[in-house]
Write a structure and sequence with these properties.
Two copies of one chain form a homodimer. Chain A is α/β, with parallel strands linked by helices. Chain A has helices at 3-18, 31-44, 62-72, 83-90, 96-119, 130-137, 154-158, 171-180, 185-188, 208-225, 276-286, and strands at 23-26, 48-54, 77-81, 123-125, 161-163, 232-246, 249-262, 270-271, 292-298. A five-stranded parallel sheet of chain A has the order 3-2-1-4-5, sandwiched between helices. Chain A is globular and about 70 Å long.
Amino acid sequence: MDYKKFIEEQVVEIKQTVGDKIAINALSGGVDSSTVTVLGHKAIGKQLKTIFVDNSLMRAGEPKRVVKIFADMGIPVELVDARKEFLSALKGLTDPEEKRQAITDTFYKKVFGRLVKKYKATYLFHGTILTDIEETVAGIKRQHNILTQLGIDTRKDFGYAVLEPLKTLRKDDVREVAKLLGIPKEISQRIPFPGPALATRIVGEVTAQRLETVRKATEIVEEELSDSGAFQYMAVLLNDYATGIRNNKREFGQIIVVRCVESVDARQASVTKLPWPKLIRLCERIVKIPGVNRCLYDLTPKPPATIEYV
Amino acid sequence: MDYKKFIEEQVVEIKQTVGDKIAINALSGGVDSSTVTVLGHKAIGKQLKTIFVDNSLMRAGEPKRVVKIFADMGIPVELVDARKEFLSALKGLTDPEEKRQAITDTFYKKVFGRLVKKYKATYLFHGTILTDIEETVAGIKRQHNILTQLGIDTRKDFGYAVLEPLKTLRKDDVREVAKLLGIPKEISQRIPFPGPALATRIVGEVTAQRLETVRKATEIVEEELSDSGAFQYMAVLLNDYATGIRNNKREFGQIIVVRCVESVDARQASVTKLPWPKLIRLCERIVKIPGVNRCLYDLTPKPPATIEYV
């Protein structure tokens, strides 16, 4: 694939489509939304308003870190604090579909609705890639970011039209395009971290406290595995409790699963055969998180498992 | 420790205590209750009635297999089918303590109560070992088989007195005694399999269907790990579900945890560093069990985890 040509064509197409209107996009800091952001700014400059929504489901320090990376590239990003809105929408929900739906609705209908009105935006850029479309069509995944594929009339329901400039690319293509666009390696080579973020790393209810637990575990897993060369790695907080002993007393503790996989494009995946000293160290650090007393390593390939748990 | 002398002393003490009365004991097929059975029969012969209660929580084929091993040693064992009573007592229970209590009560108050009356037994032999006592006193474990340690007056509550001839031994001592008593290696060298059996391998409600799932996983884990040299290995069924894909459709599947540990006496334990081909093979076989789509390996030492989950 000729990535340089792809970029040139997309820039022309975006310019023609948007014309003199205003477009808006949400940046998560993942490689897909980052690539869309830079591509969009290359095409229409300040006509594209880029927003980073802090939905409380982010990794530690993520919002400020991402805004700074784009500021350094000369692209202004507006940071919107919507943490309370998301936590309130997620309260009491345990079903994975209901959790995803609550995040989608809060994001589009509430937070983005306000911003679209504020900026009088007509177009919304989305980082949808080919694998998202295939998995959604196949019924494997309910992607939150490809409304049109799900038959939703976005103009009518949300008040804007959706543009998906990456929808013909797979993950490895996106990384190449990102590199050509001058996006720093810490984003272009970054492991996937889907939109609902830490909410997809929690089995059961998403609360501020449980987010804090999985956020700490995520930090440990990312520190320990960033040099593993794996396709994706994550920490998942289960809803189950298991028995343990602390200070010679019986207790019930929470369970963290470490998931680390090899994959080319997320369609299939297999467990990374991490060396034993690394597994032991991960476990030692994770069971120091308050309330956690088990650390498990997920051995399952995709299929029959998915990479995520929720 | 002089194991030969230990056996001689226990035989004399048991004879003196029981006199011309009838004693009864429950055999689970584990090394502790097997050793008590042979020791008791050596001391008082047919005055000891040995019962194997099928509580529905056993491994595949276990009841018949154990009865045959003892028949081959010339020790008659009565097989009692109490599966329905146990399943009915466990129905709807998810709290680990409540599950253990239901098993204890069904075992002692119901099933054993009947047998004690039937045989007019005055004494009950128990396979309690030193680690059980220590952990119960420390509040780490609620052992089902050491009522006296918990301050229960067994004569009053259950109608018989409890004798615990192994209560000064640790697991490795028991194995030596078992060997000296001529107990076959498949029992004396057997990995621990505590009384509540598969019920301690199920997080959440114990039902006939969930027992069937964990029984299949247990069979696979024991086949694959019997030559691992590990102290104990098991399969645990979690209550949580995780997403998966089967035939290109999204599904929710059950999660099996494989636990395999190194230990001397169960007071402390560490994960067995199984070779990767073995881990992969375990996972491949386990995700073929109907309804299961994840296989995790537990990395956690004891402490802070216990060996069991429930």
